[in-house]
Amino acid sequence: MTDWLALEDAVTLPTYAKPPVALVRGEGTRVWDADGREYLDVYGGHCVALLGHCPPRVVEAVRRQAGRLLFYSNAVYSPVRAEAAAALVALAPDALGRVFWCNSGTEANETALKLARATTGRSRVVAFAGGFHGRTLGSLAATWGEKYHAPYASVLPETTWVPFGWEGAVEEALVGEDVAAVILEPIQSMSGITEAPPRFYQALREICDRTGTVLIFDEVQTGVGRTGAFLYGEHVGVTPDLVTLAKSLGAGVPVGAVLVSDAIAETVRPGDQGTTFGGGMLAMAAVRATLAQLVEDDLMTRAAALFERLAAGFRATGGVVEVRGRGGLVGVTLDRPAPPVRDALREAGVLVGGSGRADTLRLMPPLTMTDAEVDDFLERFAAVLA
């Protein structure tokens, strides 16, 4: 395995600090490394493997599409793209009736911010301390953290930062009528799975309506049924003007999307937006199959049961201080630093993630994880903490 690690380090730019594991195969909740070692994956490739690894229905859809037409840009019509868009819109609130396809979460957020500025004729954005929206320049400007901004500060668009969960600060930030958009993760993932009270989201909707500001929910991690509803806004009775999606949307195939309100869609003309690979046939086949399985297997109901089983097990485990989140998006705060626990779990054959909080682990299990697999994970987790 060492040769693979050295080769990748030698020929690619560094991104994350990677563990010494080279993964070569996945099936369901399991992955295997180049040495043949098996891991229980409760991280899901960073919140991507909504249906587990290599879900047969998605694999077959992609294989079938690959034999027909690998790609043509959305300069032409495509039946598989039309069907994927119709399936996505059917699961969204009625007011979000149009889709823009792209390739990633940061692209989706870039597009949403552009649409907000074009629609309102304003430039400033309000974002929240602790939020993460991507690393391309527009979305990076709305991502919290000096470590992300420092090399690019001179070229980042203007952003006003407010505390997450405090609607009074948002009200103050919108004075002056120059704010194009308020953007937020409804559950802040990198910050340790942090959620605000329902009234906060409802107040944001009221404030944005009153001031003519576009409300953007970044549901790159919370969307596609992962929290037990197709979109988080359903939990709190709020429909944003724009919703961004990626991660779970293709169950492993790269794809992003923006759900666009009818009012904003009416302002967009041909040529205002564009993408070469967004809406490509392979990705659309994956989206169509992912959404079909999500609905037919009632996985949004399963998401709630999955969280409850995990939370009950964590609360019965010594060393766990708090459990947060919904469905397959779980934060576990410990009475000790989290990174050594994450590393020990990997040695025990379990993959989990860290967070921006030194004491908190993040879990993004597939909604297809069985009760037996949950119990297996909880046993290994308890053994590591002990």
Automatic annotation (TrEMBL):
Protein keywords: Aminotransferase, Pyridoxal phosphate, Transferase
Keyword ATP-binding in annotation: no
UniProt keyword Flavoprotein, yes or no: no
GO molecular function: transaminase activity
Co-factor(s): pyridoxal 5'-phosphate
Domain of life: Bacteria
Pfam families: Aminotran_3
Family: Belongs to the class-III pyridoxal-phosphate-dependent aminotransferase family.
Name of the protein in its database record: Aspartate aminotransferase family protein
Organism the protein comes from: Rubrivirga litoralis
Taxonomic lineage from the root: Bacteria, Pseudomonadati, Rhodothermota, Rhodothermia, Rhodothermales
